[in-house]
Design brief:
- This protein has 418 residues and is of the alpha/beta class.
- It folds into two domains: 102 residues, Roll (Urease, subunit C, domain 1); 302 residues, Metal-dependent hydrolases (TIM Barrel, Alpha-Beta Barrel).
- The model has no long low-confidence stretch (mean pLDDT 94).
- Helix 7 packs across helix 8, helix 8 packs parallel to helix 9 and helix 12 packs across helix 15.
- It has 15 helices and 16 strands.
- The chain is globular and about 70 Å long.
- The longest helix has 18 residues.
- The structure holds zinc ion (ZN).
- Zinc ion (ZN) binds next to loops.
């Protein structure tokens, strides 16, 4: 599913500030892995390093992973307008303008977005791809091609984002299309169980059940748009956790989970503990949820999942940027510092925790992060996916988002004149 490990020369990165503020050296071995991290490695390993990279005045961070994107919709803001500015407005705008989208123009926009992400410090991205009866496999075909085109700079995972309804007789075509998407190159099963009730006779529970059953058939992981609503009664996350606890044995991610943030502390805690026990990763998506939700309400609620309750329960919580300059979000820079900054402001995270959510925790959601405890933020023995920018500490890096970025992917360096 991912790019192969390239053979690189040994590199010794010296005098870098780590995420915890420690001044460290980092040894990248010939296999492109992080072989050592610590203060004053240069004295011990300097002679064996083929290349020395002086990172004085810079910070070295785990590279970012985007856990939730929609590359097929990137840069559609001027093509597809969202007159109401809310979620349903964006969905209807997409539906009304499908005729403007084809495989070549989707490839062009998605590749542009993926390359922008790679340059900004992402080494992997999980993108959803619309798989609806009116859109067919256009997005899947386009993103499969883009996955190949950008394989030298960024890994792409494709989630088949299934339309609705998926249950009952009315969902038959949609179910067949999901299977065709998986046969056609999609890596994961996705969908929107919370929207099942909008157009069909099914429920959140029955939609979840069918999506998991198809995933099980194909032995593929699952990433569901879950409870993307401010309605506190939406309990898709709790139902998903119950399904997983009942014996679903493939990796599961729940994206958005906004309604959890609107529930009582007790309900949040109960669901968060079930999510942690089920091993479900939750992806918070501040850009779109702050833009799309609570519009026109007074007082205006903050549309974000219950980050603190989930973290306290021990769940893996990642953060992503979701849409990029399209009807769901007119902004976005494809930049992990932007997402981390929003998490500091909207979820009240400390800077180091915000960065961990866009890097290590996101990688974990994609099944990429090492199980071992990181050393100064980096995983020993793991592929050297690193990002370095000029900054005294992680807060300053997030605040400034400096354009001077050096990215290592599997130990192969891009950018920087250092
Ligand atoms: Zn999404």
């Amino acid at each position: 599913m991912f790019g192969t490990l390239l053979i690189v020369q040994t590199q010794l990165l010296t005098s870098a500030t780590a995420i915890d503020g420690t001044l460290v050296d980092v040894l990248i071995g010939a296999a492109g892995t992080v072989d050592a991290v610590g203060p004053e490695l240069a004295a011990d390993n300097g002679r064996s390093a083929v290349e020395r990279v002086d990172l004085s005045g810079r910070i070295v961070l785990p590279a970012a992973t985007e856990p939730h994107a929609h590359l097929d919709k990137a840069f559609l803001a001027e093509v597809v307008a969202n007159p109401t500015g809310d979620l349903i407005g964006a969905i209807e705008a997409m539906r009304a303008n499908r005729h403007l989208l084809n495989t070549p123009n989707t490839v062009e926009r998605a590749e542009r977005a993926a390359r922008l992400m790679a340059g900004n410090g992402y080494t992997a991205v999980r993108t959803h791809a619309d798989v609806t009866v009116d859109h067919g496999l256009t997005s899947i075909e386009a993103l499969v091609e883009v996955r190949e085109r950008v394989a030298d700079v960024i890994d792409i995972e494709i989630v088949a984002l299934c339309g609705w309804p998926i249950t009952g007789d009315r969902g038959a075509d949609q179910r067949a299309l999901l299977r065709a998407a998986l046969d056609g190159g999609a890596d994961l099963v996705g969908g929107c169980p919370h929207l099942e009730t909008v157009a069909g006779d099914g429920t959140i529970a029955s939609a979840t059940e069918i999506l998991l059953a198809i995933a099980d058939d194909y032995r593929r992981p699952v990433d569901l748009h879950t409870d993307e609503t401010l309605d506190p009664a939406a309990d898709g996350l709790a139902r998903l956790a119950a399904h997983v606890a009942a014996g679903f044995d493939l990796p599961v991610t729940a994206s958005h989970c906004v309604s959890l943030g609107q529930q009582s502390e007790r309900d949040q805690q109960r669901t968060a503990e079930a999510v942690a026990a089920a091993g479900i990763s939750v992806v918070a998506l501040p850009h779109t949820n702050l833009f799309l939700q609570g519009r026109g309400r007074s007082p205006m609620p903050r549309a974000l999942t219950a980050v603190e309750a989930l973290r306290t329960a021990g769940a893996n919580v990642a953060a992503g940027a979701d849409n990029l300059q399209d009807p769901f979000n007119p902004l976005g820079r494809a930049c992990p510092f932007e997402t981390a900054g929003l998490m500091i402001l909207a979820a009240h995270l400390r800077p180091a925790d915000a960065w961990t959510m866009v890097s290590t925790n996101s990688s974990r959601a994609l099944g990429r992060a090492g199980a071992a405890t990181p050393v100064h933020g980096l995983h020993l023995g793991a592929p050297a996916d690193l990002l370095s920018v000029p900054a005294a500490n992680v807060r300053e890096a997030i605040a400034g988002g400096p354009p001077d970025r050096i990215v290592w992917r599997n130990g192969v360096r891009r950018g920087g004149e250092t």
